[in-house]
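Re: beginner question about structure tokens

> Can someone show what the tokenized structure looks like for a real chain? I only ever see the sequence side.

Sure, here's an example I had lying around. Input first:
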Amino acid sequence: MATDVASADTEREPDGRPKALEEKADGEAAAAAAPSGGLGARQLRAKAAPGNAALGAVDDPAERAADSAADRVLRAAAATAPATAPAPPPAPGTVQPVRRTVDPAAEQRLPGAPVATPTGSGGARPGVGVVPDTTTPAGAPGPVATPASAGAPPAEDSVMGEVPTPAGEAPVVAPSVPSGPGPVESGPPAPEPEPPAPEGEAPARETPRVPNEVQDYLEASRGKGAPLPEASRRAFETAYGRPLDDVRVHDDRSADEAARAIGALAFTRGNDVYFRAGAYDPAGPEGKRLLAHELAHVVQQRPGVNRKTPGLGGAVVRRASDKKKTTTSGGKPAEVAVPDEEKGPIWTAPPGVEPKGTIDTSANPKGTLTLEEVAFPKWKADVVGTDFKWRRGEKRNTRQREIWEAGVEDEVSPAIRDYLEKSNPGKKPDEPYFAKSGTGDPFDYYIGSLDKIVKQALRPRWAKGGEKFALYDVDHKRDWQLYGEDAIANLWLFNRSKNRAAGRPMSEAMSAQVEAFMANASPYLRPRPRTSTVVKSYAVTFRKAVAAKGSEGRSANDSWEVADMGTAAHVAGLKKLTPPELLRLRGSKNRLQIFNQSFGGRNKELPMDDKGKVQADKWRRTARKGLLFQATDVTFSSPGSAGGTGVVGSLSGVALKNNEVVEDVTVTADLLGMPGLPFAASLSKPSLRNGMQVKGLSPVEFEDLELDVLDGLVGRGSVLPDSKLLKNAEISLVLDGSGVAIEASIAGGDLQLPGPFQVTGGRLTLSAGTGGIAVSGRIDFEIERLAKGHIGAAAAARAGQPTLRLEGEINFDTSMFTKAQLGLSYENGTWGVRGKLAVGPGKIAGIRAASARVEVTDETVTAAGEFETSLKGVDKGTLGFAYDPATGMAITGEILLGKGIPGIKGGKLAATVKEGTEGWSLAGAVTAEPDVPGLTGTVTGSYADGAFSVEADLGYERGQAKGTVKAGLTNRTLDAEGRPTGEIARDGSLTAYGGGTVTLAITPWLQGTVGLRLTPKGEIEVSGKVALPPTFDVFPEKLVERRILSVGIDIPIVGVAVAGQRIGIFATIKGGVTVGAGVGPGQLRDVALEVTYNPARPDDTTVTGSGTFVVPARAGMRVQVDGGIGAGIPVVSATAGVSVYGEVGVAGAISAGAAINWTPRTGIVLDARGELFVEPKFRFGIDAFVDVSADLLVTEVELYRRTWKLAGFEYGSNLRFGLAFPLHYESGKPFDLSFDQIQWTYPQINPGDVLGGLMKQLVG
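And the corresponding structure tokens:
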């Protein structure tokens, strides 16, 4: 069979789309597909009254009955369905009511309860509840009998226009065996017919009805959906005991819109079941339950077997309520809760769960999956054997044709040679052998040597018995894709059309089994592989193959076994030519015979004129789909009566002109002579001048292209797409007598989707349709934790069109986006996106609103838009998608900060939207440059869950302040200590906060450290107590000195003779009194200051405080006497001295309280007055000496020397000495203390009196 066509994925559904498989990335939690709990489905029921369909209540008895039936079906999935029993008809007079409903936004249960049967009523008849089983004997399979209360007959206006006709009982699966006596019932569950209304209850007068547009869609779509997948249909037919082949499933966009319009996850109308996008998942556990519930409604309406509801005008819609939490974010199915301890790398399907199998994700080098069975076409299932593996992803390099021919030649050759020699009597040695096969119109001819004809007989072109033309492929019984051996024992010749039609369904069947198994297994696996990964790369083994339902078996003429070759049945296919046929095949000068092959094959006759010109225009082949081949020029030169083997002519023409699938092709070929046929030629391999191009898919590479004289170009090639999307897809192009065919079954894993798209299932099938390439199926994908989507056939593409065109949609997480659905398309190698994403309030923490346009390329998915935060004063930011192959998809946002934010000059918020335990939020890093004078540096922080927080330690220098500040900005409320610990401000306002310490230079000599804070408006304010050193020098020490009196006295001392001459010696004594003082340094001690300083408003700065202004001072008075000796002549020198000295001093400090008040305008002004006084006594000490010498030129002669030691004495009493001075200091002015500012107090001393008395003592 066509083992070449091996691909994988989901089961295909006519007039619909393949089911969407729900899965998650490796290692993540599973997602089942549909609702859980009570489904509250909606059903459409026929009603006599005209008008739109009514909406049934989500919790009325019919819904509860369907819920119960669905539960029982799934619990008993493994049970063998028992024989059915006849169904009881409804109780006499019972009619089905119109159910009373309320608005979908406020669904409530029907009021009222069944009324007890009055005594003597004669028994119970059906009311609300299950129809009693009145015909099934005890212990026999049948519905579970539930007593129902009787009541008054229903009102006339509550009757349905049609009463279900009894037609047979649906068996019921037995619930768990109850305690106590009573029969145990078993069998598949039958949903009970819809119960009549309770006694006395009339339908509501204002029954809610579907909108007009939904009603129009329901009418137009009736019966046009896809049938149930075969496996699902078989299972539910067994469970419900009803044929379900007329059920139609709708899960396209229109069905999704209709479901949303009535607030439903799914709803049923007659035999049509409609699903919200993503809810239809017949392979998943929850998806099965939803489908079981909806099918229960189908059966509820028709207790008879295969009974269809005729009219739909006033039907009641049964809908699966949209209020239940049936999906997670992004439309993902609700999670199947599996305890962690039950998860692991190995899982085996438990009894009752189909398909059966075991997966081991830990097996090396890749995981393994063993499945119990797979459905193949019957003829293939009969020969593939058991325990076969599935081969994918390997390049095929088989030699089955070569092996077959070598393996049968020994049996075929003798038989065929014998026949040819007997059927060609009288053949001359230089003449070819002739034979034919088939039944004519046309025959296949065999012309040539024995070896040449034997070679063709190795692969006969006739069925057994030789009466019928047939084509066969050399096929592996166990296919190459099943690891079948490339050996003669595994080969046969099989019907070409059946063989080539089987490869794709086999691949799809294996994919479908893997996907169905993974839908059940995924929640239990850890780590969890993607289903697409398992389909594409796991080692998959199937225990056996079973016959697919409805598939054909093998007929007697479908195959040739090795043992059949060379038998009479084989040789019988060759027939002898008649003489007229032999004459015609040799041709003539006016009739050129052209054959397909060098051995003959089919032939075409073209007229030639007497000059040998061939009438090429007579060679024209058309088909229903247009022109297949038109010869434009044929040349021929006869090689002579014996024929020949070389080139004897040429042919050119146009093939497939105006074809809707491929471009026009110019064909050329040589005409080759044929031995023994002077006016005949065979065609060489054709040459395509510019190759072949498939519209929308690009070049074709052929393995075996031929030019058939009747059908034109014939062969099979591989399309080599230019499109990156299809780069890895296996697409075949088939040329035959009917035109062009495209064969491709492309699994999702074979598509190169943009980076963040992860395939979750599905398959595309390409074919050559009316108008061009036809596409069916779809590929499902997801962007992990963000979106789900699909891409498939475009509306026009289903009918065919010149280029490949796909359409689909991306559904983003509705927990994040308010506008989440985008249209998706692919055409001419380019992706397109329709629509715009939008985020509303409350969807993403930190974002008030956002919108973005999405762009899809071959490589990635990007988005560009803008968003608004709740931050007051912040402009809109940009929003985008970013994809990293290593980390996956992320939504990023950026805002340029500055305008409107207090204290910020510029900056940026670069954030990412992330999913956390509380939902989605915008979080990221913030960098900003402060706009506070004096602050330098960059602040950094974060924005998360709507909370804005930036903080940094910055340098500060401005005016009199210099230091460090911890500065921050937040939208949280501040606590008492100024820290952002409170709730996010409702108005979104941003508040600056922070503080630090700075050195504050109030004056050049008054500096200290003080606290600093950042005001909510983003300004710096210095406020608080200043930390100061113990003392401050206000001014340095100032020294002053004053001589208050002076005296001079000459005192005679002695007469001395020198050189016989008497000389008088006298003393000159001078003296005086000097006073001096030192003031300072002036100091502030024990200062305490408080300051309020705002660099932005420096003139408003104030400094207040107190301290002690201390000015140390000292003063002194000195009395001194200095004397000198005089001599009368130069040669005599005399030295004498009198030293009288005495002094008194005082030292102390002026201390006064100082109030310090400072402003930039006034500075500091300090005023004080200091006084220092003392009443000392002077103590004098007096020494005197006289030394007279003569200088005699040669030597110095001491003439006189005398020293007196005079005793000291005290002088004076009550002498008052001191000073008083004023002190004034102003900021910005130098401190200047002059002598004039000092007021001295000192005693009146007369040095003359002191010296006079002293001299008398000396002289005397």
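Each token stands for a local structural state, so reading them left to right follows the chain. Residues 95 and 163 are 6 Å apart (CA to CA).
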